[in-house]
From TrEMBL, chains A, B:
Oligomer and partners: Homodimer.
Any single GO BP term: L-alanine catabolic process
Identification of the protein by name: alanine transaminase
SUPFAM superfamilies: PLP-dependent transferases
């Protein structure tokens, strides 16, 4: 009775989309990194002492300390008896009371509305209105467990064949693999538009139109995803570029999905974050009536609270009946975690100047963002000096995405192992240095080019160690295969 | 430019499954209950002072206090500085340290493995092994944000047409609407089998076979869902009944989905919880090789931590390649919330006799379960005395599901309002007493019968008030329509 033929579920009769989907950020190389960590613990000899996980934007895993204010707010809401403790500042206590009053039975252990705790949704709306100088209706805010579930629920809404054609979703290449994975999982068509590496990963209308026209032949393009600041590319879109995208989307009746989770991560002095909501609204009619979903997370920025799973989405200009169906689809998952919702409250309603927590909060926030800026520059400068590398500036987000000219002999060696050349490069790097990065093919890249994504998150001493090991590896790799 | 014709998304071109799906537990009556609460706050005069939310198993919302041990564990993991505080017991500190050592960078702010923190998965496996007296492999454990995402991911795995036929999922009627909602969302076929109300909501093999044979004509039945203890029915399956279901599933090559989230909620002295895992394993080959997914949550039992979103699933005997695909599908959602994972740790690794926290923990646990038992009996006794009611014992879970003989004149009055008779009854109850229950049609019921689900969760004084209001309402309703 052993063997798989006796099983109800086999590869041939399960969801075929599960088989095609890929999610490189947690793919085989990352699994291998985990194995190596275990081997090191067991005393297996390696040419390195520890694994550097530069594969994922996981700030605390790389040593970033949590913002005290956020953790205090969590403590006070999860254990209201601490409201009597003198160890917590009054302004944080007041915020905790506000949240608790918004919970059924004054407990974060109760289910919340599926769209989240009303008082926190209102705080998000105030935050967005202040950020953009444009009104925001709290009914349009949904609290989500990180940005991912929000993105998935909007993509699921678009899952509808029109005139027998599958829905097409335009995504930038390179892109964050949540999009490719979800589009594959949902059986939709991914419509690639390429960012221009030569001009700092900018976005040209001509390329958008080319991509759209080509896709039109086989699917029904319904939405465009824009990631700003860019992941994995680290670019920050100019206001003019955003306006062009909005005009393009309007002309072609596309819903805009704006992934803006890195809005606080801007390092380049000449770059500035503009939200799609702000630009679209300020462009006036008809653009200001366009359907837009924008996504934010507590996992990035300066909080870096990835494990807590907090986030929100704002959806504007959607027809009320459709909004009702989206809302209904979310109710079956009951609600997002209250810890994540409290984290969102900390994100959008931080201590104000003059309040007891302010000085500590602002020092911690500036410290984290300052250190990220330094590391963005360090990584860019170091990698730019490598032979055969082309590296765009890290204007924002948490990643660098260098192009590596891989010598033909290395491409052959990769082929012999049945690996794409960029995966081979990343795999050799991992095995010989312990540095874990993600090959460019996981994000998409122009055919014949090779890239990888590395985070800029390791703390400065580790990052310097990483850059040294990387330099040594790369020069040996080039010597071997040139 | 106003009006919906200008919109990209309209009811005609969005995911059609979103339109058909229903989720009664958070349906229109519950939304109305929220409106009534706001009206009361604004001073609108009503024949009652407050809304009693008996529609959802939301323990803390109804006044249940959190288990101190769980909240302390959360505090210590979210703010490790408290590990130096004398206010926390040593055994809880030791547990917190174990969890933190399992987190990247020793922070709950880091992403965890998609299947959850390894040390907590191991704790779950130990807990299951001790519960069942049967081995449990921690690799088979996935930590989930409540039970719902686990159930949804297993159902998504089954989403595959075979021989052109849609997958069929057998669900009990009445059932918890997560199943009907997800099956509709995923475009699968719901295959109803009826529980026998006359014999205390038990499950007959003849009915299973009838349901299966009928379904075979139009779909491809692939799995059977069993909810034990039952939601909304409150029954606890006997071991013999479980064996029959397992034999039936084996004969018909069905994967078993065992929803066992109420396993700690047993009130009837003659009832006992047996897990499907235990029974199936002890039945020996070939049953012990069957594919089974079982689900557990921190939202129910005696913890009642609905908002934190903790849960786990155990999947056994699945072919490794299929398991890999399921795992891959989960990675794109990154990971469940760490707060929920810590809550799972509290559930499966509670204080042991002799440890400093034990006395308080066990007193709180027994207090909660004892009070639930009392209320289960009170609700059953009171409702049984109502004219035209048939009420089965609440053997377990958190609900009562009475059958109400609704007089023909009331059915006519409902029709005039365009409502099913059970929705009319529940709506009249809400408007005249503030009691919010869910009509039986949200769970499914035999045609021509009318039921509703009420929780047994209001604290005893509120519950007595609720029963008095309910009695008055029902006798007036019967007078008016008899």
């Amino acid at each position: 009775m052993s063997g798989n033929t006796s099983k109800c579920l086999q590869l041939e009769n399960i969801n075929p989309n599960f088989i095609t989907m890929e999610y490189a950020v947690r793919g085989p190389l990352v699994i291998r990194a985990g194995e190596i960590e275990k081997e090191l613990k067991q005393g297996v000899k390696k040419p390195f002492d520890y694994v550097i996980r530069a594969n994922i934007g996981d700030c605390h895993a790389m040593g970033q300390k949590p913002i005290t204010f956020l953790r205090q707010l969590l403590n006070l809401t999860f254990d209201p008896e601490l409201l009597n403790s003198p160890n917590y500042p009054e302004d944080v206590k007041a915020r905790a009371k506000t949240v608790l009053e918004g919970c059924q039975g004054q407990s974060v252990g109760s289910y919340t509305d599926s769209a989240g705790i009303e008082v926190i949704r209102r705080q998000v709306a105030d935050f967005i209105a202040a950020r953009d100088g444009v009104p925001c209706d709290w009914h349009n805010i949904f609290l989500t467990a990180g940005a991912s579930p929000g993105i998935k629920s909007v993509l699921a809404l678009l899952r509808c064949k029109v005139d027998g054609k599958a829905p097409g979703i335009m995504v930038p290449i390179p892109q964050y693999p949540l999009y490719s994975a979800t589009i594959a999982e949902y059986g939709m068509t991914k419509v690639d538009y390429y960012l221009e590496e030569e001009s700092g990963w900018s976005l040209s209308t001509a390329e958008l139109q080319r991509s759209y026209d080509e896709a039109k032949k086989t699917c029904n393009p319904r939405a465009i995803v824009v990631i700003n600041p860019g992941n994995p590319t680290g670019q920050v879109l100019t206001r003019q570029n955003i306006e062009e995208i909005i005009r393009f989307a309007h002309k072609n009746k596309l819903v805009i999905l704006a992934d803006e989770v890195y809005q606080d991560n801007i390092y380049d002095k000449d770059s500035k974050f503009f939200s799609f909501k702000k630009v679209l609204t300020e462009m006036g009619s008809p653009y200001s009536e366009m359907e837009l979903a924008s996504f934010m997370s507590t996992s990035k920025g300066y909080l870096g609270e990835c494990g807590i799973r907090g986030g929100y989405m704002e959806i504007i200009n959607m027809c009320p009946q459709v909004m009702a169906m989206l809302t209904k689809s979310i109710t079956a998952s009951l609600c997002g975690t209250t810890a994540g919702q409290v984290a969102v409250s900390a994100l959008v309603n931080p201590p104000k100047p003059g309040e007891p927590s302010y000085e500590k909060y602002i020092a911690e926030k500036n410290g984290i963002l300052g250190a990220l800026k330094e590391r963005a520059e360090l990584v860019h400068k170091t990698l730019s000096s490598f032979e055969g590398y082309k590296v765009n500036k890290v204007q924002g987000a948490m990643y660098v995405f260098p192009q590596v000219v891989i010598p033909p002999k290395a491409i052959e060696a990769a082929k012999a192992k049945g690996l794409p050349a960029d995966v081979f490069y990343a795999s050799e790097l991992l095995e010989s240095t312990g540095i874990c990065i993600v090959a460019g093919s996981g994000f998409g890249q122009k055919p014949g080019t090779y890239h990888y994504r590395s985070t800029i998150l390791p703390q400065t001493d580790v990052l310097k160690d990483m850059m040294n090991k990387f330099q040594k590896f790369h020069s040996e790799f080039m010597q071997k295969y040139k």
